[in-house]
Specification:
GO cellular component, one term: endoplasmic reticulum membrane
Shape: globular
CATH architecture of the largest domain: Orthogonal Bundle
Helix content: 40-55%
Keywords: Endoplasmic reticulum, Heme, Iron, Membrane, Metal-binding, Monooxygenase, Oxidoreductase
Radius of gyration: 28 Å
GO molecular function, one term: oxidoreductase activity, acting on paired donors, with incorporation or reduction of molecular oxygen
Subcellular location: Endoplasmic reticulum membrane
Strand content: 5-15%
Cofactor: heme
Number of domains: 2
Number of strands: 19
Strand order of the largest sheet: 7-8-15-12
Length: 672
């Protein structure tokens, strides 16, 4: 066994005192008191059986302690793997080694008839395997757990498994081994500035608290080490290195090697699968190439009618609030954005603006909240633990609602697509049929949705599967509704707080539309040059995605710092966009910064609201057009007056940057 310094052993004793409490011993119950037989399991393995009911019967503080112990042990250095299997273990002497189950081991001394009955029950039980890589073993066996139970296999050749205390010591030793590795890694990045980190938990305690506190803490760190342009944090055992200067951000974003999303994105997988946002490697490359035509100019032109219809619906609702004092406009804009993304993504109207009780609408917002909470709560990490608690059950319910809705729409669209194929319709026919009059106001019946494009798309000459299509539709839904809603809300506040700038936008609208109430067209949107500058400036001050990350698959030299493999690199547009070298008086709302003559010589990575480089946002043109359409529709009819000061907005850095108390405004009908 590896020898440790006195300092390490002192820490070990402290951990042992914490881990070997009665609570821990009661919870981690071994399957039998005897050491497992050599006939069924290696002497260096022990199964620990944890049941759902066992966890649910605990007090909240006790449960939190248990989950912390388990998650700390099993998630360090990502040593745990989660896989599901539907295969049946083979009974009898010919059974394969990797299919041995704890139930079979425990019952090896039973009579032959009893053993057959046990194996028969196992054959009809859906199992989940939760293997854990060991410290010093040459091979790994799989232990199955029935239904709500979970079985861990801990590998440690130096342990005596005749009681629970030794199991705890194994876990303790595993932590200490990992701890020495982490300490070595920490010393290798001591030259990167950052706050002091505690053993094991790192800086996680400094990031606890509300979403507002989390956002403010990261902004504070970027300001504290502004001259360095970098800071480092340890969240548990994971190293995070933040960059917020154009020169270092460029190294990360333009790289063809640093393309993998940060590990924190894994919590999006249950909803989004491995679509364009979360996929890596060859799958990401092929998907990006496949989906790019779906954002063709002709397709975007088709979406203008959707923007117009939903914006008009929103304005009708706002009419009832105009000239009646202060109100919160946040939900009006947000629900409009959700209706737009549903119709453009799936060709389906959910009427979020008219039916706020829609279960689908509620689940879209709830699951985003649950994902964020899980990202910041270490003991919520492992699926088999998360699924036993209230948040996990609510997450599962939301997933069911969201996936069932998407799958139903895909099925309906697939049937329509089959009929079109029978009539000889191809992608080329579709695009040419929408090319005859680009300014035409397309009827809802003739509009194309993102889903239609996916049905026509082919990967290696083959159509996309239903599962692949669902991944991309759900990804488009996730990325498209909150980001644009956030951007539009922040812009409304900024325009309402700067009446001189709002007046210029009104003048631009009047020059395009005059006194006409006609529907807007793509040509109109292209002429809104000053409004586009306003949108870009709002995205600079309040970037909808305040942070995004990349995972390093190899050591990387960034500036004068070497960031080790396995680290997460965090880009902070919220800090990057406030660099006075490129944006003098950075807190001032000044759309003129984005006039061609003022932005032409700016560093290309000083402004990245849609990321940049190979993994930039594929839908950024869509987002800009949507914002133009919705904001112009509001300003054609109303004058906006903001009723909050900037410091009263209190940005909350969740998955998307939101104002804590909404956007309070007064609307006054314009008299032309």
């Amino acid at each position: 066994m590896k020898q440790f310094s006195p300092k390490i052993w002192k820490r070990q004793q402290k951990i042992q005192n914490n881990l070997t409490s009665n609570h821990s011993r009661d919870t981690l119950t071994p399957e039998g008191d005897d050491k497992p037989s050599n006939n069924n399991m290696d002497n260096d393995q022990i199964p620990i059986h944890i049941t759902k009911s066992n966890l649910e019967n605990r007090e909240p503080n006790e449960l939190k302690k248990i989950l912390t112990i388990i998650s700390t042990t099993l998630t360090i250095e990502h040593q745990i793997e989660h896989r599901r299997t539907l295969s049946k273990p083979e009974a009898g002497p010919g059974a394969r080694e990797e299919q041995a189950s704890p139930e079979c081991i425990q019952n090896q001394d039973k009579t032959e008839s009893e053993q057959k009955q046990t194996n028969k029950q196992l054959h009809h039980t859906k199992r989940r395997e939760v293997p854990m890589k060991g410290v010093a073993t040459q091979k790994r066996k799989v232990c199955y757990a029935e239904n709500e139970a979970v079985t861990f296999v801990i590998n440690a050749p130096y342990a005596d498994f005749n009681n629970v205390s030794s199991v705890v010591k194994v876990m303790e030793s595993e932590i200490l081994l990992r701890f020495t590795e982490i300490e070595k890694k920490r010393k290798s990045v001591e030259n990167i500035p950052g706050p002091p980190a505690l053993p094991l938990i790192g800086n996680a305690h400094q990031l606890a608290g509300t979403s507002k506190e989390f956002y403010n803490t990261l902004i504070e760190y970027s300001e504290r080490w502004h001259e360095h342009g970098v800071f480092r944090l340890w969240v548990g055992t994971q190293l995070l290195v933040g960059f917020y200067k154009a020169e270092t951000v460029e190294v990360v974003l333009q790289s063809s090697k640093i393309l993998d999303k940060a590990t924190e994105y894994r919590f999006l997988h249950p909803w989004l699968g491995t679509g364009l946002l979360t996929s890596t490697g060859s799958k990401w490359h092929s998907r990006r190439k496949l989906l790019t035509p779906s954002f063709h100019f002709k397709i975007l032109n088709d979406f203008v009618g959707v923007f117009q219809d939903q914006a008009q619906t929103m304005v009708k609702r706002l009419d009832s609030m105009a000239d009646r004092g202060t109100f919160n406009i946040f939900s009006y804009i947000t629900l409009c954005a959700l209706d737009i993304i549903c119709e453009t993504a799936m060709g389906k109207t959910v009427d979020a603006q008219g039916n706020t009780d829609s279960e689908y609408v509620k689940c879209v917002y709830k699951i985003a909240e649950l994902i964020l909470k899980r990202q910041r709560t270490p003991w919520y990490g492992p699926d088999f633990l998360y699924n036993t608690i209230g948040d996990g059950k609510e997450h599962a319910h939301c997933l069911k609602v969201l996936h069932e809705f998407t799958e139903k729409v895909i099925q309906e669209k697939t049937e329509e697509f089959s009929k079109k194929q029978e009539s000889g319709m191809t992608m080329e026919n579709v695009l040419s049929s929408h090319d005859s009059n680009e300014d035409a106001y397309m009827s809802r019946k003739n509009r194309l949705a993102f889903l239609d494009m996916l049905l026509y798309a082919k990967q290696d000459g083959k159509p996309m599967s239903s599962a692949d299509i669902r991944e991309e539709v759900d990804t488009f839904m996730f990325e498209g509704h909150d980001t644009t809603a956030s951007g539009m809300n922040w812009l409304i506040h900024l325009l309402g707080a700067n009446p001189d700038i709002q007046k210029k936008v009104h003048e631009e609208m009047d020059s395009i539309f005059g006194n006409s109430d006609r529907p807007l067209t793509m040509k109109d949107l292209q002429e809104m040059k000053y409004l586009e500058c306003c949108i870009k400036e709002a995205l600079r001050i309040f970037p909808p995605v305040p942070f995004f990350g990349r995972s390093l698959t190899e050591d990387c030299k960034i500036g004068k710092y070497t960031v080790p493999k396995g680290s997460t690199v965090v880009i902070s547009p919220a800090s990057l966009h406030k660099d006075p070298r490129y944006f003098p008086d950075p807190e001032k709302f000044d759309p003129d910064r984005f006039l061609p003559e003022n932005s032409r010589k700016r560093h290309p990575y000083a402004y990245v609201p849609f990321s940049a480089g190979p993994r930039n946002c594929i839908g950024q043109k869509f987002a800009l057009l949507e914002e133009k359409a919705v904001i112009s529709t509001i300003l054609r009819k109303f004058t906006v007056i903001s009723k909050q000061k900037r410091e009263e907005l209190c940005p909350i850095g969740e998955l998307i940057l939101r104002p804590e108390n909404g956007i309070l405004v007064e609307l006054h009908s314009r008299i032309k």
